[in-house]
Amino acid sequence: MDKIVVGTRKSNLALKQAEWVIERLQAAELPYTFEMEKIVTKGDQILDVTLNKVGGKGLFVKEIEKALEDGVIDMAVHSMKDVPSALEEPFEIGAITEREDPRDVLISNGHVPFHELPAGAVVGTSSLRRSAQILAERPDVTVHWVRGNIETRLRKLREEGFDAIVLAAAGLQRMGWTNDIVTEFLDPEMCIPAVGQGALGIEIRKGDERMQDVLKHLHHEEVAKRVTAERAFLHAVEGGCQVPIGGFANLEADGQVTLNAVVGEPDGTKLLKETETGYDAEAVGKAVAERIAEAGGTAIIERVKAELNEG
Ligand SMILES: NCc1[nH]cc(CCC(=O)O)c1CC(=O)O
Q: Given this structure, which CATH class describes domain 104-185?
């Protein structure tokens, strides 16, 4: 049987995601064997610097794309939220998978819920999106950066003086840890998740019909429609590095997609939120982006980007 090589980053979460993809493809009983190829990316090597300052999301994707282009791998498994809103030539997303819980979760020492954290509590996060929304809701807490993979962040919660950390439910679920360690699932209207959070994206060489066929067995059309609206928004407001932006879409019973999105000041002093519903996912994303840009979102994004480049 022909062999298909599935590329992945080397973190435990990435390995779980790639294993999940391979299991699902094997279950489809296609005439292929599947093999995993682990790739160390720059983003995995630089764990002690705020990721925002070292080039953002693209860091995790670049080396993997090289392996794809060179034919070392045939497809690459990504967390959809780590995939830049515009892929470069000659790549495309061959499938967007079913979505895990897209919400962020709070894990606190002593299981104190978010609204009951004491004033001055130290909340760990590594994203400007989370800090903006946490501080808008609770200006009396302090946000500190906590970098590293999920295991590292949980260890730092116990050992480094944090009262709580906020991370993606999906990562915990894929690691098999879930509910007993989670204090609270944050309301996705209060803390709007990252674009694509909870879904996986499978990247392939553009026009690779063999992979397109294989990936029909993984693609989830409803999730893809939601993520399309989210990514159209992300693309229209910035198109680049990691800034305080959230976007989360749901499908209505009639098939329309509703997008809630936010651009915020990292210190939480301003949040710009907009909502739009419609049948055309791309148009919904663009409409929300236009309104947020006009309300001052562009100015915030430009300023944050400039600060990241200086820092
Ligand atoms: N930023 C890193 C990252 N990329 C994907 C996930 C979790 C899985 C997902 O959101 O799909 C995480 C960890 C986190 O944000 O807590």
A: alpha beta
Cα of 14 vs centre of ligand 1, distance in Å, is 10
User: Is 82 tagged catalytic?
Assistant: yes
Q: Classify domain 2-97+199-219 by CATH number.
A: 3.40.190.10
Going from the first residue of the chain to its last (311 residues), give the mean pLDDT of each consecutive group of 10, the final group possibly shorter: 95 96 97 96 61 54 91 97 90 97 97 98 96 98 93 93 96 88 97 98 98 98 98 86 90 98 97 98 98 96 89 66
| Per-residue model confidence (pLDDT) at position 53 | 47
Matching CATH number, 230-310, of 1.10.1530.10, 1.20.1260.10, 3.30.160.40, 3.30.70.240: 3.30.160.40
| Nearest Cα to Cα of residue 227 among 106, 102, 60 | 102
**C-beta 193 within 6 A of ligand 1:** no
Which residue is catalytic, options 2, 44, 82, 101? Answer: 82
Q: Which residue's alpha carbon is nearest to atom 10 within ligand 1?
A: 197
What is the Å distance from ligand 1's center to 58 Cα? Answer: 14
C-alpha 105/C-alpha 167 separation (Å) is 6
Tokens of 3: 């062999």
CA distance 60 to 72: 17
Query: How many residues does this entry show for the chain?
Result: 311
Tell me if 104-185 shares its fold with 230-310: no
Closest-lying ligand 1 atom to the alpha carbon of residue 79: 11
Domain ranges of the chain: 2-97+199-219, 104-185, 230-310
Please identify, by atom number, the ligand 1 atom nearest to the C-alpha of residue 104: 16
